[in-house]
């Protein structure tokens, strides 16, 4: 039986073991760059590989939104070229400085410690590279890496037996996040992020378009035709009165149906975009997405059902003359539909939780309840990235598989070629659930 005292001792022992000297006489060429013994040559090879991969990643990332705005590929490349070069320089600098810091620390200290294998080098690389990026991009990167770091810390705690596995915790987490984000979006109190505001507007602010029919997509014409027919059916055969608090033009049922169908469409588009970006712009990977039709259907069904549920609950609460808590209640209840999502759904819930926490943090600063922390974005990105890379190098079994695939792609499979036996030898003092009895 593991007591609370044992768990605290385990946590302290784990923290202490990070600073215990590991293996003496182990050169960095065996642990970090086995393809070449010289650090400078290995670093230049790593630099060339990462720069090419970074350009491919960010070309897909920046070009895709331009194509969604009906721009040609030439116009999109011309507009996004400076951003692609800048972001690629950031990612390349981070990879190269992290690699160089690892070798320099090994030569200065003369041996390895658990904290110098990946944590400190990655922190140095993050500090050296994050200021290359644009300011608004730094915030996006910091929030994404914070969600990854939280997931890694949670997996570490579960693996060491410090906390139990929380079943259904991602549903409760997303429900809470949905309540906060929907409240901020409807009341316009805090602008959290342009991309998030755009996404929530697409999903929740479905408006009847007034442009000519021939300028609309076929899917849009079909969706609006169906909802118009439902609206005429309801208003023509039933005595229906919309609440004064409702801002939509058509009946609540037609508006709910329109929003749900719109969410269903955008759910499919979002999946295609994420797959395209995660695969480095490979259209073949996007086509493989539709081979898993059940997964695609579950995600699209969740997005459509969530969008429809939010507006339907808002209309019901407006009928009861409830206004102030309407967005929060509708967002919280609709967030329970997150149970439809296929596994693993925890990363999505963690990301939106970080966004909700960011909104609360900005609101408290705006109301002067909390002071603004200088360089908060830089510090958050540095700490989160250091935790994530340390987990990926030293405890890869706790890393999210999609991020492991990203590291393999970025490093041209150098990440999976690291000598795990030597890393385990350096990390042998770290306490886990299997050797917890050493504390007794």
How would you sum up this structure in a few lines?
With 440 residues, the protein is mostly helical.
Q: Mind sketching the topology for me?
A:
Layout: H1 4-17, E1 21-24, H2 28-31, H3 39-68, H4 73-109, E2 111-113, H5 114-117, H6 119-129, H7 135-159, H8 169-187, H9 194-204, H10 218-237, H11 252-278, H12 283-289, H13 293-319, H14 326-335, H15 346-366, H16 376-394, H17 401-410, H18 420-426
Antiparallel strand pairs: 1-2
Helix pairs in contact: 3-4, 3-11, 4-6, 6-16, 7-15, 7-16, 8-14, 8-15, 10-11, 11-12, 11-13, 13-14
Can you give a write-up of this model?
- By secondary structure, the chain is mainly α.
- It is about 70% helix and about 0% strand.
- The chain is built from 18 helices and two strands.
- It has helices spanning about 5-15, 30, 40-70, 75-110, 115, 120-130, 135-160, 170-185, 195-205, 220-235, 250-280, 285-290, 295-320, 325-335, 345-365, 375-395, 400-410, 420-425; strands spanning about 20-25, 110-115.
- It has a two-stranded antiparallel ribbon with strand order 1-2.
- Helix 8 (about 170-185) runs parallel beside helix 15.
- The longest helix has about 35 residues, at about 75-110.
- Mean pLDDT is about 80; it is low at about 210-215 and about 430-440.
């Amino acid at each position: 039986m593991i007591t609370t005292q044992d768990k605290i001792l385990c946590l302290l022992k784990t923290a202490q073991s990070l600073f215990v000297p590991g293996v003496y006489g182990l050169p960095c060429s065996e642990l970090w760059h086995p393809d070449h013994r010289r650090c400078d040559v290995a670093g230049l090879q790593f630099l060339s590989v990462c720069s090419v991969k970074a350009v491919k990643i960010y070309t897909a990332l920046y070009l895709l939104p331009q194509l969604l705005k009906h721009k040609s590929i030439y116009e999109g490349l011309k507009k996004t070229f400076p951003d692609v070069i800048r972001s690629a320089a950031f990612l390349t600098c981070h990879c190269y400085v992290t690699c160089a810091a690892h070798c320099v620390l090994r030569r200065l200290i003369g041996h390895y410690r658990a904290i110098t294998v990946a944590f400190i080098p990655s922190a140095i690389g993050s500090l050296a590279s994050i200021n290359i990026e644009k300011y608004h991009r730094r915030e996006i990167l910091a929030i994404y890496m914070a969600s990854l770091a939280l997931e890694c810390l949670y997996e570490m705690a579960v693996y060491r037996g410090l906390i139990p596995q929380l079943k259904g915790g991602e549903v409760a987490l997303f429900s809470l996040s949905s309540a906060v984000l929907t409240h901020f979006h409807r009341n316009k109190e805090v602008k959290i992020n342009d991309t998030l505001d755009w996404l929530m507007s697409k999903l929740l602010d479905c408006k009847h378009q007034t442009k000519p029919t021939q300028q609309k997509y076929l899917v849009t014409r079909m969706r609006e035709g169906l909802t118009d027919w439902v609206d005429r059916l309801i208003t023509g055969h039933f005595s229906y009165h919309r609440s004064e608090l409702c801002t939509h033009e058509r009946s609540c049922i037609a508006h709910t149906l329109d929003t749900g169908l719109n969410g269903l469409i955008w759910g499919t588009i979002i999946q295609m975009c994420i797959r395209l970006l995660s695969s480095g712009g490979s259209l073949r990977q996007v086509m493989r997405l539709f081979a898993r039709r059940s997964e695609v259907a579950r995600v699209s069904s969740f997005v459509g059902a969530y969008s429809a549920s939010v507006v339907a609950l808002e209309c019901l609460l407006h009928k009861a003359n409830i206004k102030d808590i309407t967005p929060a209640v509708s967002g919280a209840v609709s967030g329970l539909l997150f149970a439809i999502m296929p596994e693993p759904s925890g990363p999505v819930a963690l990301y939106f939780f970080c966004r909700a926490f960011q909104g609360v943090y900005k609101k408290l600063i705006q109301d002067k309840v909390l002071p603004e922390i200088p360089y908060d974005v830089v510090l958050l990105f540095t700490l989160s990235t250091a935790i994530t890379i340390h987990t990926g190098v030293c405890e890869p079994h706790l890393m999210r598989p999609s991020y492991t695939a990203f590291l393999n792609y970025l490093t041209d499979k150098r990440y999976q070629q690291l000598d795990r036996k030597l890393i385990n030898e350096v990390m042998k003092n770290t306490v886990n659930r299997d050797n917890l009895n050493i504390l007794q």
